[in-house]
Amino acid sequence: MKPHPLIILGSGAAGCTAAIYAARAGLKPLLIRGNQPGGQLTITTDVENYPGFAATIQGPWLMEQMEAQAKHCGTEIAEDHIVAANLKAKTLTGMNGQTYHFQSLIIATGATAKWLGLEGEKTYNGKGVSACATCDGAFYRNQNVAVVGGGNTALEEALYLANIAKTVTLIHRRDAFRGEKVLQERVKNHPKITIIYNHTVAEILGNPHPITGGVTGLKLQSTTDNSTQEIKVHGLFIAIGHAPNTTLFKNQIDLDETGYIIAQKGTVQTTHQGQPLKGIFAAGDVADPIYRQAVTAAGMGCMAALDANRYLESLH
Predict the structure, then answer these.
(1) What pLDDT score does 45 carry?
(2) Structural domain of 100
(3) Residue 260 half-sphere exposure, CB side, CA atoms within 13 Å?
(4) Which residues carry out catalysis?
């Protein structure tokens, strides 16, 4: 089977942007949509920080537009989910057994937010429940919000939200944070942040109406004596981490201790055992444990497409 010049795994902001640039360069890319077409923006309702839009837009609509643009430029799109990868042989296997061969590959499989597992997270997702303060914090200006977690992410999100919200309640299941000491001190000394140790969120309270509904409070449970209490908040930010979608590439590509792809500094070039994997690039949240924004993912997608084009040109 003749290999595809370029395959792009993932159809979020990174994957679609890579497809647009690659298609305009005449690479005839194949974009494989994956099991969550459109990535994390498809579960984000209101978006007001993506450049170019004066009014608030909807995340699913934005991804529909990106994909439509990729198609218009000449991208072929496959409705498949890759279940196996052999980077050395440059082959991918789809969920129905189809084998894809490639010369160049852009991995844009993203990362998945970790959730608490509460039913209310589904009911109020986008209506008071979020996993990204920098994405959604502005919707809670001068309101009461809560953050769940005890690591750097939770501490940073609490501090970020404290500049926007009326109050921030930081809920941690243990009696001490895991995050950096300097962040802990900032949180503890911030006048707008209240800390509740040794508690978990037992239930998300609110009005489930699909249009007018939203979060109104939380039921918390003590991890020491099982007692409960309720607090009033309009927003809940889950900050217990993200899991990069890199299981396919374990032992084939260099990953950090939490599973994110390690790219060569300042590039999107992947490596294995410290050596470049020629023609294989990573873009978006799968290689970005720090920023995790649609606009940064799109920028990395652009970089990956340009690098893939240079690589393919070098083969001739």
Answers:
(1) 67
(2) 4-112+242-314
(3) 19
(4) 132, 135-136
